[in-house]
Amino acid sequence: TDFGTPAIQSDKQVTLTIDGREVTVPEGTTVMRAASEAGGSIPKLCATDNLKQFGSCRLCLVEIEGARGTPASCTTPAAEGMVVKTQTPRLDKLRKGVMELYISDHPLDCLTCSANNDCELQDQAAAVGLRDVRYGYEGANHLAEPTDHSNPYFDFDPSKCIVCSRCVRACDEVQGTFALTVDGRGFASEISAGQSGDNFLSSECVSCGACVQACPTATLQEKSVKEIGKPERSVDTTCAYCGVGCT
Ligand code: FES
């Protein structure tokens, strides 16, 4: 099971209700993980089972009785007596709106992309039911720097980056190298390899591959995967926002 955020050890337990189902989890567990333990699944892009929560993608919003707004489930701790809804028309609309912005800033080359059918952005676009993008497809990523081929093992294509920061956190938390950072803000934000711009080879990177494993898109990808391709995988969805409609 994909729990979305790391497990918490605690002697104290809390019981909450998620989509009508009661679930008891160790105190400090996130609402996202509790929802998963209750058998549900909340859309997400920046959260993973092994990295500290970051709360940047805003896809995992939920409704909590008595709470203001729609908090991110990956950064909200479960509390005793909490009543959570993860699927409502309002949440559907919010998540679709967030996904529209991501796709408006992402190349639409799924069919020829080396991550086709193994891309979390593609999966989550399908999960939220995205069918159309009102803002066009000409976001800032079309002006991104060219692919950095300098590392002997993997490539870095900034045009496909959604700045979820999973690579930065993997570099820091898994490897302790601190070679990557996020530069800039908003649409202009980008992943940078330390002081060396986008050149991985001349950065502090030790080629451990933690960033490549953490990347949800084809931004960071092993050269061998790009050359040989991944084994084919069967999926029961199509690229939700693509008009081709292949299966
Ligand atoms: Fe919660 Fe990204 S998964 S904000």
Short description:
This protein is α+β, with helices and mostly antiparallel strands and 247 residues long. It has helices spanning 31-37, 89-104, 120-127, 166-175, 210-214, 223-228, and strands at residues 13-18, 21-26, 63-64, 83-85, 154-156, 181-183, 190-192, 220-222.
Give the SSE string.
Answer: EEHEEHHEHEEHEH
- The top-level CATH class of the largest domain is Alpha Beta
Task: Please state the average pLDDT score.
Answer: 89
Q: Percent of residues in helical segments?
A: 10-25%
Strand content: 5-15%
| Beta-strand segment tally | 8
Write the CATH fold name of the largest domain: Alpha-Beta Plaits
Q: Compute the number of structural domains.
A: 2
Reported for the largest beta sheet, the result is: 4 strands, mixed
How would you sum up the global shape? globular
The N- to C-terminal Cα distance equals 25 Å
Instruction: Give the C-alpha Rg.
Output: 19 Å
**Bound ligands, each once:** FE2/S2 (inorganic) cluster
